[in-house]
Amino acid sequence: MSQVDTPVTQVFIGLGSNMKEPLIQLKSAATALRDTHGLSNIVFSSVYQTEPMGPADQPDYFNAVAQCETTLSADHLLDQTQLIENRAGRIRDRRWGPRSLDLDLLLYGQQIINTFRLTVPHAGIAERSFVLYPLADLAPSLDIPGKGKLSDLLDRCPQRGISRLQSSL
């Protein structure tokens, strides 16, 4: 697949892990994102510990969000994040099951993308505390395309089952 460069776009990427020392997984992912050609000006939210969204028979998750600029197309950025996941041993065997690393393209500028491979803003973004609270660390006045103001979404998304850790990436 050839890389298609685009103008600089602000993006937000969700990071999550609940296996194989999750905090170490997130720190490794942060390093891999910093080393990814086409990504720049990367900043990370605080790390949050959250209850699993899916089956309860798994450990809590550690979640964070990265804000960065990219010259990569959305599809190429997806390829890069999946490569990072695969290198971390990501196995996709159970929906909402435990994972060594999950990187989700949450927002790609103000674009709304709905293809076979990619949905942006990320599906469910408006209801997921483990995404909204880290996003608010980085961009509290953010307007999420097709969803509304982040502050309004936070008002409707209780902060139960989520706690901010002092650790940062």
Structure commentary:
The chain has 169 residues and is α+β, with helices and mostly antiparallel strands. It has a single domain, classed as 7,8-Dihydro-6-hydroxymethylpterin-pyrophosphokinase HPPK (Alpha-Beta Plaits). 25% of the residues lie in helices and 34% in strands.
What would a concise description of this structure say?
The chain is α+β, with helices and mostly antiparallel strands. The protein contains four helices and ten strands, in the order E-H-E-E-E-H-E-E-E-H-E-E-H-E.
Radius of gyration: 15 Å
How many extended strands?
10
The unreliable regions are none
Class by SSE composition: alpha+beta
Cα end-to-end separation = 31 Å
Look up the CATH topology: Alpha-Beta Plaits
- Biggest sheet features: 6 strands, antiparallel
Strand content: 25-35%
CATH superfamily: 7,8-Dihydro-6-hydroxymethylpterin-pyrophosphokinase HPPK
How many H/I helical runs?
A: 4
Helix content: 25-40%
Name of the top-level CATH class: Alpha Beta
Identify the overall geometry. globular
What is the N-to-C order of secondary-structure elements (H for helix, E for strand)?
EHEEEHEEEHEEHE
Give the arrangement of secondary structure elements.
Layout: E1 5-17, H1 22-34, E2 39-44, E3 46-50, E4 61-72, H2 74-87, E5 102-108, E6 113-114, E7 119-120, H3 129-138, E8 143-144, E9 148-149, H4 150-155, E10 162-168
Antiparallel strand pairs: 1-4, 1-5, 2-4, 3-4, 3-10, 6-7, 8-9
Summarize this structure as a short list of keywords or feature phrases:
169 residues; alpha+beta; Alpha-Beta Plaits; two-stranded antiparallel sheet; globular
